[in-house]
Amino acid sequence: MRSFRAVALAALALMSLSATGCTSTDTRTPAAAAPVTAGPKVVASTTWAGALAKAAGARDITVIAPPSVQHPPDYDPRPSDLTAVAGATHVLYAEFDGFAAKLKEAAGGDGKLVTVALENTPARIRSEVTRLAAMFGTQAAAGTWLTSFDAEYAKLSGGVQAARPSPAPTAVTHAFLGYWADFAGLKVTGSYGPQPVSAGQLSALTATEPGLVLANAHLPSGNPEISGATRVDLVNYPEEDLDLLGVFRANAASLTTALRG
Prior knowledge:
Elements: H1 4-20, E1 41-44, H2 47-55, E2 60-63, E3 90-93, H3 100-107, E4 113-115, H4 122-136, H5 139-162, E5 171-174, H6 178-184, E6 188-192, H7 199-207, E7 212-216, E8 230-234, H8 244-260
Helix pairs in contact: 4-5, 5-8
Protein name: Zinc transport system substrate-binding protein
Keywords: Signal
Organism: Couchioplanes caeruleus subsp. caeruleus
C-alpha cells in the first residue's frame, strides 16, 4: 500500500501537467520539407552535344545517335528514338546533324530547341558550357567542371608538346580537326575535306612533305594516304559516358604515340 506522501506527490504531478497544458502527444506542426527543384531533362542529338550538357551540370540526358555510330550526324533515328523529345526541357543539336529536322518536328516548335556549336577548343567549350548552364540554372556545377577542364587541358597539351621531336614534324589536317594541331603545337601545311580529296589536292598536300596526317576517325574513307606521313586518327565525339575530357585524353595519347614513333 502506497504511503500518503507518495499519493500526494502523484497528485501534485498531475496538477502540474494540467496547468502547463502538457500531454503525452506532440502536437507541433512539422517543418515543411524544402522544395526539390528538378534539374533539366535534356535530349541531345549526339554524345558531343550531350557531353556539353553534362559539363554544364545536366544529369538527366538522353542521346539520340548511339555512340557506336561512326559518324553520328548521319544517324537515321527511328520513331522510338524520338519519343524522349516530348518530355524534354531542352533538345540540343548541331546545325550539321542530318536528322535535325526530325528533332525539330518531334519537339513541336515549343521553344525547347537549342542549337549548340560543336568545336573542341577551350574558348568554344567555355562559351557553350557557360551558356547552357545559364539555361539550366546549374552555374555552380559548370564552374567546377570548367576549372577541372582548364587544368586537364593544360596538362594534356603540355604533355603532347613535350613529346615533339626536334625539329617538329609539320601536319596536314582534316578541315574539322585543325584545332588539334594547335593542341599539339604543330605547324599545319595544308588541309582537306569535308569533300573527297581530289587527285590534284592529294598532289598538293604531298608536296608539302608533312610528317603527320591528322585524320578524322569519324570519316575513315575521307582521309588521304600520304607517302612518308604518319596518319593519326583523331576523334571529336565522346563515348557513352559523355566525358568530353575523355576525347582530349584519347587524342593526346594518339598524338604522343605518333610523335614519339
